[in-house]
């Protein structure tokens, strides 16, 4: 039974229903209940709430959608999508509407849903939730799961690749927002590059400061920052900037240099062949695998709430893409570093 008291989520629901992306049928979904469904995939109704920018970013959000798509292809069912407005002020309303409509499980994509999930999951205890990039281990919520990633480990390998392939001994990193999550990418990348070449120069720039999430959707600014690095002598730039990464790729193409993508295999996701050609590799953050596994566990009744699931190098939750063949010649060195991280010989820093 839902609580009778009037919470923020309930008040927003009474204020009016948010228009959700029309990717589900008109048939009223059946909630699976806390802890997962009964194994009947016909009733699988997934609610997917995107990070800022929504589907089409060729990166983080698209990877989450790919995971849902794969799960539905295997299990049957449907998905209903929600994209927040630019300042994210409607996240609570969006999640609450998905839960109220009976979508179950409901997945929030991105750390910005941490507080939102805590509020809405408490209001809808019979709905199963997951949040990407946010911990629920200390939340006390029994109907939520945190899907976490060792971004620093995958980024370390990206740094290794950059240092091994750089011809100038000078590389760069462009982050979307200067915040702890993105700084994990920076820390790992810098550590990996310096493990190969202690004297390598690593330039670091962020598109926007902490609290300003426009940095994930500003390709023009990403292009400017990356171009300044290339003009200063860097020949490879790694971005962890969401939709802004296309600007980094454009700067690489304009200057005849190379770039490293993030989250998805961006060699496969960019539309422009000229940009595809500059993508040396991508640091894979397998949000797709994590989301698909969570939905599969839900369909089988195997979700354990109140815990975090870490996706790291050992579980292939992070890694490097090989599309395009530009790092084929250094695969053995990359694998050596990967095994040293898995064994614990190398501990990758999580802060710059």
Automatic annotation (TrEMBL):
It is a lipid-anchor. Keywords: Cell membrane, Lipoprotein, Membrane, Signal. InterPro entries: BMP_lipoprotein, Peripla_BP_I, PnrA-like. SUPFAM superfamilies: Periplasmic binding protein-like I. Gene3D superfamilies: 3.40.50.2300. Residues 50-350 form the ABC transporter substrate-binding protein PnrA-like domain. Residues 1-24 form the signal peptide. It comes from the Bacteria. CDD domains: PBP1_PrnA-like. Pfam families: Bmp (PF02608). It is found in: Cell membrane. PANTHER family: ABC TRANSPORTER GUANOSINE-BINDING PROTEIN NUPN (PTHR34296:SF2), TRANSCRIPTIONAL ACTIVATOR PROTEIN MED (PTHR34296). Belongs to the BMP lipoprotein family. This is BMP family ABC transporter substrate-binding protein.
């Amino acid at each position: 039974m839902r609580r009778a008291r009037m919470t923020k989520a309930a008040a927003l629901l009474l204020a009016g229903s948010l228009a959700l992306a029309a990717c589900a049928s008109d048939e009223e979904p059946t909630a699976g209940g806390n802890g997962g469904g009964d194994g009947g995939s016909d009733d699988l109704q997934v609610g997917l709430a995107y990070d800022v920018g929504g589907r089409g970013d060729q990166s983080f959000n698209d990877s989450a959608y790919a995971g849902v798509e794969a799960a539905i292809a295997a299990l049957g069912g449907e998905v209903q999508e929600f994209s927040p407005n630019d300042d994210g002020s409607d996240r609570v309303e969006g999640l609450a509407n998905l839960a109220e409509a009976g979508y179950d499980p409901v997945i929030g994509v991105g750390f910005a849903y941490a507080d939102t999930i805590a509020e809405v999951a408490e209001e809808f205890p019979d709905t199963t939730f997951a949040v990407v990039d946010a911990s629920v281990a200390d939340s006390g919520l029994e109907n939520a799961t945190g899907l976490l990633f060792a971004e620093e480990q995958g980024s370390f390998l990206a740094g290794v690749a950059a240092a091994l392939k750089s011809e100038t001994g000078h590389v760069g990193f462009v982050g979307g927002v200067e915040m702890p999550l993105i700084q994990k990418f920076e820390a790992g990348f810098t550590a990996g590059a310096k493990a190969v070449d202690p004297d390598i120069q690593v330039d670091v720039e962020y598109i926007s400061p902490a609290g300003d999430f426009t940095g994930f959707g500003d390709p023009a600014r990403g292009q400017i920052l990356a171009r300044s690095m290339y003009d200063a002598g860097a020949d490879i730039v790694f971005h962890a900037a969401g939709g802004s990464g296309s600007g980094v790729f454009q700067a690489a193409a304009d200057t005849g240099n190379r770039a490293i993508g993030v989250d998805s295999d961006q060699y496969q996701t960019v539309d422009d062949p000229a940009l595809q050609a500059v993508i040396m590799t991508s640091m894979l953050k397998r949000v797709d695998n994590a989301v698909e596994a969570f939905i599969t566990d839900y369909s089988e009744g195997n979700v354990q709430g109140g815990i975090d699931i870490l996706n790291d190098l050992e579980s292939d939750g992070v890694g490097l893409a090989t599309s395009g063949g530009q790092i084929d010649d250094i695969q053995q060195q990359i694998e050596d570093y990967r095994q040293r991280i898995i064994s614990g010989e190398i501990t990758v820093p999580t802060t710059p």
